Amino acid sequence: MSISNHFTPSLSTLDLEMIRHVPPGGSWKNIPSTVSSERLKQIRRSFEAGEGSRSTYYGRLNPHKPSYTINTYFNRPGNGCFVHYGEDRMISQREAARLQSFPDHFLFVGSRGAVNKQIGNAVPPILAYHVAECLANKGVFIDLFCGAGGLALGFEWSGWRGILANDKDADALKTYEQNLTAETISGDIQQDLVFRAVVEKGREGFHAAGGAPTFILGGPPCQGFSTAGKRRSMDDDRNNLFIPYAALLKELRPDGFVFENVPGLLNMGGGEVYKLIREVLGVSGYSVSTWILQSELFGIPQRRKRVFMVGLREEQQVPPPVPTTSFEEKSGLFEKLPPTVTSKEALDDLPSLRPGQDGSNLEYEKEPTNPYQQLVRGQLTAREYISSLCIRRSAAL
Ligand SMILES: C[S@@+](CC[C@H](N)C(=O)[O-])C[C@H]1O[C@@H](n2cnc3c(N)ncnc32)[C@H](O)[C@@H]1O
Q1: 96, 118, 140 — which closes off a domain?
Q2: What is the mean pLDDT of residues 42-50?
Q3: d(Cα 22, Cα 28) in Å, to the nearest integer?
Q4: 173 and 51, same structural domain?
C-alpha cells in the first residue's frame, strides 16, 4: 500500500546548510554565526531584544519527545521545529498528519499550501475522540468551520454521525468529502444565503435523527474580536464569527455543542472575550464546561493545547477526559501513566525522503512496531489504541 501525502518540500542550499548544524532537539542556537543568513540575523536580533526565545525556530524534532505544535508553516525551517529528527529535510505532509493523529488512509486534497493549512489547522482526531467519549449518549452533529475534518473524525470514531458540514475553504471541503460522510455546504457562514442553507439542512437532519442527541461542533476562529469586553462590540463587529455561531444555536436549538478554540481565547481582551462568550452561551440556555486539554497527555505525539467549551441544555457540567499519557518526570508514584508518545515512535516506519521528494508511491519501511503506528495504519481502532495505553499503565503500576 502506498502512503498518500508523503511529500517533503525542497530546501534552498542555505537552509540545507543551516539545518545540517542542528542536532535532534536543537534549534537556530546551534547554527554558527559564520553561516550568513538574513533570517538568522533577524531571529538573533529579536532574541537579543528580548522578544521571546524563538527557541523552536530552525528546530529539529527530538526523536524521544512529542513534537511541538504542528502549525500551518511546517514546510518552513525558520518558522518552528519541523526538521526531521534523523534526515536533513522538513517533515512530510503525511508525517505532520501523523503527529496530528490522522490515519494514513486520510487523504488530503488540494495544492501543497492548501494541504499544509488543513493539517496545521485541524483538531487532532484522537483528542476529539477523547472529548466525544465524555458525552454520555452518541448522537448526530453539524460541523461548523469544519476544515479537513479532524474534529469530526474523532467524533465518528466514538460512534457519532456527522450530518452536515460547512466551511468557506473549497479545498478543505473536498478533503472532508473524501474522508467523511456528512453532506457539505461550501461558503462563508456570514453570508445570509449560506447561513439559511445551514439552518434548513441542519433542521432536516436533526429532525431525521429520530430523537438521538443533536450537537453543533466547531469553533469559529476568534481573531475577529476587535474591541473586546463591551457587549456592543459583540453585537456590532461584523467580522466576529461568534455571531453566526450563536445565531445558529438559537435557530437549531441542539441538545449541546462543542466549541473548540486556541487557548489564547481565554486571555483575549484581558479575559473579557471569554466572559462575554460564556454569557451569551449561558443566555442561550446552555450550561458550559470549559477544558484546556494538552494533546500530548492523550496519546498524541505532539504538544498542542486547545480549549473546549462543552455546552449542554441540561443543568449539568461534563467532567473533562482523563489523561492517558504523561511526561514521566511529572508522574507521582500513584499516578504513573505511560510516557508521552514520541515523534520517533510516530514516524519511524515511514520511508526516508530527500528534500523535494514526493514519496506517496513508496511502501512502508517496516511492520508497525508500536500501538501508535498500528493506529495510524488502521490496524487498531481509536478505542483499541487508548486501551493499549491503559494496559501499559497497569503494567507500569
Ligand atoms: C481551525 S480550522 C477548523 C479545523 C477543523 N475543526 C478540524 O478539526 O479539522 C477553522 C476553519 O474555519 C474556516 N472559516 C473561517 N472563516 C469562515 C467563515 N466565515 N465561514 C465558514 N468557514 C470559515 C476556515 O476556512 C478553516 O477551515
Answers
A1: 118
A2: 89
A3: 7
A4: no
Atom of ligand 1 nearest to the CA of 190: 19
**Domain's final residue, options 312, 345, 360:** 312
Indicate the average pLDDT of the chain.
91
Q: Please give the Cα distance from 81 to 59 (Å, whole number).
A: 4
Q: Whose CA is nearest to atom 11 of ligand 1?
A: 145
CA of residue 168 to ligand 1 center, whole Å: 7
Contact 371, 395 (CB under 8 A): no
For residue 291, being part of any structural domain is answered with yes
Q: Which residue among 156, 169, 259 has the greatest number of ligand 1 atoms within 8 angstroms of its CB, and so is best to mutate?
A: 169
Residue nearest to atom 14 of ligand 1 (CA): 145
What's the CA-to-centroid distance between 167 and ligand 1, angstroms?
6
**How many residues are there in the chain?**
397
Q: Which of 81, 134, 146, 222 is catalytic?
A: 222
Residue with the smallest CA separation from ligand 1 atom 1 is: 121
Place of cell 457540567: 317
Answer yes or no: is the C-beta of 346 below 6 A from any ligand 1 atom. Answer: no
The H-or-E segment that residue 292 falls in is strand 287-294
Does the beta carbon of 244 sit less than 6 angstroms from any atom of ligand 1? no
Helix, strand, or coil here: 258?
strand
- Confirm whether 323 is domain-assigned: no
pTM value surpassing 0.85 = yes
Is the shortest distance between the CB of 121 and ligand 1 below 6 Å?
A: yes
CATH number (domain holding residue 134): 3.40.50.150
Do 75 and 141 belong to one domain?
A: no
Residues 133, 100 share a domain? no
Question: Would the CB of 168 count as within 6 Å of ligand 1?
Answer: yes
Element (H, E) at 82: strand 81-83
- Give CA separation, 105 vs 108, 151, 179, 345, in Å: 9, 16, 9, 19
Give the pLDDT confidence of 185-233 residue by residue, as tens digits. 999 999 999 999 999 999 999 999 999 999 999 988 876 554 434 444 4
User: Is 390 a known active-site residue?
Assistant: no
Domain count, the chain: 2
Query: Residue 29's domain is classified under what CATH number?
Result: 3.90.120.10
Does residue 173 sit in the same domain as residue 280?
Answer: yes
Cβ(167) – ligand 1 distance below 6 Å: yes
Asked if 142 and 89 sit in the same domain, the reply is no
Structural domain span for residue 19: 13-118
